[in-house]
Amino acid sequence: MSFVYLFIVLVIVQRIAEVGVAKSNERWMKQRGAFEAGESHYPVMVALHSCFFVALLLEVTLKDSSWTMWSLLPLAVFLVAQVIRVWALLTLGRFWNTKIIVLPGAEPVKSGPYRWIRHPNYVVVIIEILFLPLIFQAYVTAIVFSLLNAAMLLVRIKAEEEALDRNGKYSEKFEQVSRFVSIRKK
């Protein structure tokens, strides 16, 4: 198995492990009275992410992609995103999930990367969907799935913030925190 496939398979294995953590966190939260929101778009999001990996594998196979020196830049960006991903997941702890699961009465997390960005994990997903394909010159996958992901995030973030607002004054508590970029509002 070439480096290209090995690297992509390792990322897929990481995602599958994260789904296991998410399911455990979902059970834990629901046992404490949590509710789920955004159920209708969740299967579409799962399909989008699954199709992303299929498209990526297909494009790197058809193009006979390989590792090049140009791959270093998108690889570096991708690896930095992984550090931010782990930081965000560890900061949320049991509250992290791939679904929108809200525990009534729980305060929104405002530590770790959430001090500066409301949705650091979505920033990571944006970076991954753009830069993972770029490591192997899979430009079509990078462009098509970045656009599809942007459309999905418009739906996802709206549903998530509405659910968090039902649980408390999320928007008010985070009004000084940007959704994606660390620029404090005055």
Automatic annotation (TrEMBL):
Q: What is its main location?
A: membrane
Which keywords does this Swiss-Prot/TrEMBL entry list? Membrane, Methyltransferase, Transferase, Transmembrane, Transmembrane helix
Kindly name one Pfam family recorded for this protein. ICMT
Q: Which InterPro entries match?
A: ICMT_MeTrfase, Metal_cation-efflux_comp
Q: Extract the GO molecular function terms from the UniProt entry.
A: methyltransferase activity
Q: How does it sit in the membrane?
A: Multi-pass membrane protein
Q: What are the GO BP annotations of this UniProt entry?
A: methylation
Q: What is this protein called in UniProt? A: Isoprenylcysteine carboxyl methyltransferase family protein
What is the scientific name of the source organism?
Alkalicoccobacillus plakortidis
